[in-house]
Amino acid sequence: MNQSAPGKAILLVDHGSVKAEANELLEEIARLVAGIAQGYHVEAAHMELAPPDIAAGVAACVRAGATEITVMPYMLAPGRHSTGDIPRMALQAAEQHDGVLLKVSAPLGVDSRLAEVILRRVEEAGENRG
């Protein structure tokens, strides 16, 4: 993602998949976030199974000029990956870059806007009956 970044970046991280179309969804959401995240460079990475991995995502943020990177686990619940694996892997990656402050946000969790998306998907399913 190319967006000017005066030192701040967001790194969206999902689990990763062997299916390319699943991985492309994260790229698409990263583009959407980049479109509204003024002052942030936005990248996407996968915890495993597909490139770019977390280390490559952190490096891309640093190359874009970021000195403060917030890693956002693109997952719903605060499970093992979002609270353990992703933060650990991101911190290890950040250690390779002097002067980089790395933070990890909570996963998506509960938000009324997600309820709206669920209702929209349910309504779309009704429209797509064959």
CATH class type: Alpha Beta
SS elements, strand count: 4
Order of helices and strands: EHEHEHEH
Return residue spans where pLDDT drops below 50 for at least 5 consecutive residues: 1-5
CATH topology: Rossmann fold
Query: Which structural category do the helix and sheet elements fall into?
Result: alpha/beta
Instruction: Choose one word for the global shape.
Output: globular
Strand content: 15-25%
Oligomeric state of the chains in view: single chain
From the coordinates shown, what is the CATH architecture? 3-Layer(aba) Sandwich
Task: Give descriptors for this structure.
globular, 130 residues, Rossmann fold, alpha/beta, 4 strands, 45% helix, single chain, 4 helices, four-stranded parallel sheet, disordered N terminus
Protein model, in words:
- With 130 residues, the protein is an alpha/beta fold.
- The chain has one domain: 3-Layer(aba) Sandwich (Rossmann fold), CATH 3.40.50.1400.
- The chain has 4 helices and 4 strands, in the order βαβαβαβα.
- Strands 2-1-3-4 form a 4-stranded parallel beta sheet, with helices on both faces.
- α3 links the parallel β3 and β4.
- α2 crosses α3.
- The protein is globular and about 55 Å long.
- The N terminus is likely disordered.
